[in-house]
Amino acid sequence: MAAPTAADFPSEVERLPRFAPSDLEAIVALRPDLVLATTAGSDPRAIARLRELGIRVFTVDVTSFDRLAAACREVGRILGRSAQGERLAAGVEACCARAGAAAAPLPRRGALYVVWWEPLIVAGPGTFHDDLLHRAALANLAPPGAGRYPRVDPELLLDPRLQVIVAADEPDLRSGFARTETAPAGARIAGGDVRVIWLPADPASRPGPRLPAALEALVAARERMERQGTGHGAQGGEGAQ
């Protein structure tokens, strides 16, 4: 068993051999019986080459919480650990049910999930980030038909429908936000008409078993935001740690 260099969860992964996903020679040298990959994060040419070499590759495409639960079950079945896969899937579904019940009374507000500030890149329809917003009673204002993670005009931040921005709490994103907030396109953010919710970075950025933690954090932040009042006159960003 081996893991990519960026893997850091669970802690047991630290004891495994590591490889760069782009280093096919290293992967082949490990002589794997099975390679798990994602359609969103893996180079399709690398996957095709591994298959040409006779290596079994299973890919998952987690575009929603439902797809995440299905992937847990399928990976568990393939690994001969169906019970563990079922437990993971059931945990995802239970978390979604709890979060959905908590989010149901919240007013639906226009939102964006910002993946990067400079240039402005947002999560579009058909992504797990889009589903994350939807389940927290947020309407995604990303342009339809522009792809999963389109680069958009910063003027979108001035859309009067926009009330909430969600982003992963990472140093580079914080720095980009600080510059955006002082730019003309950030006027509604600086004025308090748009609130920013910062989610814990790893759960919010990786479509794996920890993703439900990002949903719980987002709904909790939304509940606090509604109690405090959102829209005009609401100041500052909302942390969700």
Shape: globular
Q: Which structural category do the helix and sheet elements fall into?
A: alpha/beta
Overall residue-averaged pLDDT value: 91
Indicate the radius of gyration in whole angstroms: 19 Å
Q: Tell me the CATH superfamily of the largest domain.
A: Nitrogenase molybdenum iron protein domain
The number of distinct helices, counting runs of at least 4 residues, comes to: 9
**Highest-level CATH class of the largest domain:** Alpha Beta
Determine the strand fraction and express it as a percent band.
Answer: 15-25%
Spans of at least 5 consecutive residues with low confidence: 231-236
- From the 3D structure, determine the CATH topology of the largest domain: Rossmann fold
Order of helices and strands: EEHEHEHHEEHEEHHEHHE
Going by CATH, the architecture of the largest domain would be: 3-Layer(aba) Sandwich
Work out the count of structural domains.
2
Main beta-sheet annotation: 6 strands, mixed
Query: How many strand segments?
Result: 10
Helix content: 40-55%
What distance lies between the first and last C-alpha atoms, to the nearest angstrom? 32 Å
Can you offer a commentary on this structure?
The chain is an alpha/beta fold and 241 residues long. 41% of the residues lie in helices and 17% in strands. The protein has helices at residues 24-29, 44-52, 65-78, 82-103, 128-135, 171-182, 187-190, 201-205, 211-228, and strands at residues 3-4, 18-19, 35-38, 57-60, 109-116, 121-122, 138-140, 162-169, 195-200, 237-239. A hairpin with a 4-residue loop joins strand 5 and strand 6 (121-122). Mean pLDDT is 91; it is low at 231-236.
